[in-house]
Structures are given as structure tokens and as C-alpha cells.
Design brief:
Structural class: alpha/beta
Number of helices: 11
Bound molecules: NADP nicotinamide-adenine-dinucleotide phosphate, ligand F7E
Mean pLDDT: 97
CATH architecture of the largest domain: 3-Layer(aba) Sandwich
Helix content: 25-40%
Distance between the termini: 45 Å
Shape: globular
């Protein structure tokens, strides 16, 4: 039985990947952080199904900022595949916690690579690094693919740049099977609630039931290439099954602005909204209501709060996944409409009175 080690197993991608690998017959080990409350809700169903009965999921306490801990887990588990998904993954928060972000996202990756080397595992282990479309940053070339130059715009992206090149360096210097997945934004019902898509679907459901009146957002002009996390964890696995360690873009080849995404979400709950005004005075107003919800025509359902603007933002990300399609046979199964439908239905059910 193959063994996989996932850092960040309690996060969105870690949970989907653990389920995917268990279904493929892997024994899955995950690193969870010590916290004062339980944070394993995304994997609790797997723990219940697989920890007691056949021990296909084993969780270890750990932290990517702790070298001895990383080395000790690697030694204990001796995995065939490592998926390094652990990160301080919020771009806006990284401006407030740049040192911690670099320690986790940049040096955390280096700690893993160096532990693999010192433990003599370079020949036996395959390593996946969670790289990101944020590396392209303020990029004038559209769409972006594997050879598009990087221009990172946040402490998050700069830390991920260090990790990206560390992978290339260890691959070349020590002949390690280490690959970067350059993943564009991917979402799901289990996305963290401070990311914009989940924030919007959550708010739309609350406004639908009259639990809230308005959602406050920041930059509505930014465009993102949004896919579904389920498709992307399948891509991560495929990247490690390829004959050579290489870097791959996973994306949907389409993008939408935050404003367009918001309109699509409200349309899904039967409400048309129109935007008017400029900058911090822009508002999204309900103009047509086709469902039983408590939203009224003329209601200001979207307003701007400048707290959500970033010191520097990334405005136009659009991926080109043709390399992954050609070499891995990977393509996304979800599009923006099926993604939004699933997220909205989940949140409507969650807040149903
Ligand atoms: P997420 O939901 O925020 O999950 C991040 C995971 O990392 C959580 O399990 C978190 O633990 C863990 N973590 C944070 N700091 C850590 C530390 N110091 N030591 C060990 N673990 C730590 O993120 P995600 O959306 O699943 O993303 C997974 C990875 O892909 C991340 O590396 C992210 O940067 C990258 N990525 C994401 C996207 C995307 O659109 N989702 C796109 C490109 C790349 P807690 O649960 O304890 O907080
Ligand atoms: O922001 C704008 C915001 O926080 C998207 C992470 O998974 O994907 C994610 O990073 C856009 C930005 O994701 C709000 O300014 C407007 O332009 O959902 P987000 P992100 O920054 O793209 C990449 C690929 C990763 O690697 C990261 O780990 O939406 N925006 N208003 C807002 N964003 C938030 N969060 N909240 C708002 O109110």
C-alpha cells in the first residue's frame, strides 16, 4: 500500500486530497496543528470512517515552522509521496504577518526538502509543492502558463516564489522527484470563509433568509480564474504520477471579475443585481427578485468597505492549462456555473431556518 503525507490536511485542499487518495487505496498521513479548539471538521468524516476501522488516515501533530518536528514526522512515516499544502494561504493577511508567512510558506518548504535529503529519501520520495497563480502577480501577459514570467505582489506570493525555486533547485541539484503545481484559484463549499467566493455565497444565503442585509467587499474589478478544488486535487495526484518531475499550470482558461461573480451568485438565488456608483461609493442593488427570498427590490445588497482593499492587488489572472491537458490528460470537470451552484446550494442548506 502506498503511503502519502499531506501537510495542511485540515485545509480545503488537504481534505479533498485525503479523500481522493484514500479512495485510491493509499494510507494517508496528515499534519495537523495543535490548536485550542478542534479544527479537523473538514476531515472528521474520514477520521471516523478510516482511523478506527482500517487505519487509512493517521494524523500527526506538527508545524512547518518546526524543523525537528518536520524531520521526525518524515522519518516516522517514510512516505512514498509528499503533498506540501500547508501554508498561511491568505494573501491579504500576509501583509500583516509577512515574517510568519515567509517562515511557513518559504522556509517550511525548504525544511521539508532538506529533511528529505538528510534522511536519505531523495530517491524514494515524490514531492508536490502547492505553488500558485499569485506568482504571476502584476502580469501583462494573458493568459499565463508555465513559462510566463513571475511578478509577485504580496508577502504571500514572494514566499511562494522562494518555495517554487527551491523545488527547481533540489530537483536539479539532488535529482529529486519534486514538482510544482501552479494552481489558479480553486474553491468549493469547504473554502475558508474569508476568501471572496465563500464570503459571497455565505452572505447571499444569509441575505436570502433575511439573516443579513448587505455584504461588504473590496476590489470588485480584480479578475480570477476560478475552478473547483475537487478537480485540482486530482491534478495534484496526476502531477506526481507523470514520468518526470515537472511544473504544471492547473486552471480553467476562463476568468471573471469579483463583480461578475457576485452577480452570478445572486442570480443563482433568483435575484438580479445591478451595480452603480464608483470606488468606495459603488453599490449592488437588487433590481429583480424571482424567488421566495426576503430580498426586496431596491435593497443595497453589496457595499464597499475600504478595509478589504489590499496594499497591492493582482488584477488579471487567467490560466492556460494546455500542458496539463497534453501531458497528464487533465481537464477540469466543473465550470463557473456548476461551481457556484454547488457552493450556493450548500450555503442555502446551511442557513435554512
Ligand atoms: P487553506 O484552506 O488555508 O489550508 C491551509 C492549510 O495549511 C491548513 O490545514 C492550515 O492549518 C495549514 N497550515 C497553516 N500554517 C501552517 C503551519 N505553520 N504548519 C503546518 N500547517 C499549516 O488553503 P487551501 O486553499 O487548502 O490551499 C492549500 C495550499 O495550496 C496552500 O499552500 C495554498 O497556499 C496553496 N494554493 C491554494 C490555492 C487556492 O485557490 N485554494 C491556489 C494556489 C495555491 P489550520 O487548519 O490549522 O489553519
Ligand atoms: O481574493 C478581491 C481581492 O482572498 C480574490 C488564495 O487561495 O488564491 C487565493 O488568493 C480577489 C482579490 O483570493 C474582497 O482583493 C474583493 O483581488 O478570494 P481571495 P486570492 O487573493 O486570489 C490564490 C491562487 C492563492 O494561492 C491563495 O492562497 O478578491 N476581493 N473583496 C476580496 N477578497 C477577500 N478575501 N475579501 C473581500 O471582501
Amino acid at each position: 500500500m502506498k503511503k502519502a503525507l499531506i501537510s495542511g490536511i485540515t485545509g480545503q485542499d488537504g481534505a479533498y486530497l485525503a479523500e481522493y487518495l484514500i479512495n485510491k487505496g493509499y494510507e494517508v498521513h496528515g499534519i495537523k496543528r495543535r490548536t485550542s479548539r478542534f479544527i479537523t471538521d473538514r476531515v472528521d468524516h474520514l477520521v471516523k470512517d478510516h482511523q478506527e476501522a482500517d487505519k487509512k488516515l493517521i494524523l500527526h501533530y506538527g508545524d512547518l515552522t518546526d524543523s525537528l518536528n518536520v524531520t521526525s514526522i518524515l522519518k516516522k512515516v517514510n512516505p512514498d509521496e509528499i503533498y506540501n499544502l500547508g501554508a498561511m494561504s491568505h494573501v491579504h493577511v500576509s501583509f500583516e504577518t509577512p515574517e510568519y508567512t515567509a517562515n511557513t510558506n518559504a522556509i517550511g518548504c525548504l525544511r521539508m526538502l532538506e529533511s528529505i535529503r538528510l534522511l536519505g529519501m531523495t530517491e524514494s520520495v515524490k514531492y508536490y509543492q502547492a505553488s500558485t497563480s499569485e506568482l504571476y502577480g502584476d502580469c501583462k501577459i494573458i493568459p499565463q502558463k508555465e513559462d510566463t514570467p513571475f511578478n509577485p505582489q504580496s508577502p504571500y506570493a514572494i514566499a511562494k516564489l522562494f518555495a517554487f525555486y527551491s523545488i527547481k533547485n533540489y530537483r536539479k541539484s539532488y535529482n529529486m522527484f519534486a514538482s510544482n503545481g501552479i494552481l489558479f484559484n480553486h474553491e468549493s463549499p469547504h473554502r475558508g470563509e474569508t476568501f471572496v467566493t465563500k464570503k459571497i455565497t455565505t452572505a447571499a444565503a444569509k441575505i436570502y433568509y433575511g439573516i443579513a442585509d448587505t455584504i461588504y467587499l473590496g476590489n470588485l474589478d480584480a479578475k480570477r480564474d476560478w475552478g473547483h478544488a475537487k478537480d485540482y486535487v486530482r491534478g495534484m495526484w496526476k502531477i506526481l504520477q507523470y514520468k518526470n518531475p515537472e511544473d504544471f499550470v492547473l486552471a480553467t482558461n476562463t476568468n471573471f471579475s469579483i463583480r461578475e461573480f457576485t452577480k452570478l451568485v445572486f442570480k443563482e438565488i433568483g435575484v438580479e443585481i445591478e451595480f452603480s456608483g464608483k470606488g468606495v461609493n459603488e453599490k449592488g442593488i437588487a433590481t429583480k427578485v424571482d424567488s421566495d427570498c426576503l430580498i426586496k427590490i431596491g435593497q443595497e445588497v453589496v457595499k464597499i468597505d475600504e478595509r478589504y482593499f489590499r496594499p497591492s492587488d493582482v488584477n488579471n489572472l487567467l490560466g492556460d492549462y494546455s500542458k496539463a491537458k497534453r501531458l497528464l490528460g487533465w481537464e477540469p470537470k466543473y465550470n463557473i456555473h456548476s461551481l457556484i451552484k454547488e457552493m450556493v446550494n450548500y450555503d442555502l442548506e446551511r442557513f435554512k431556518p
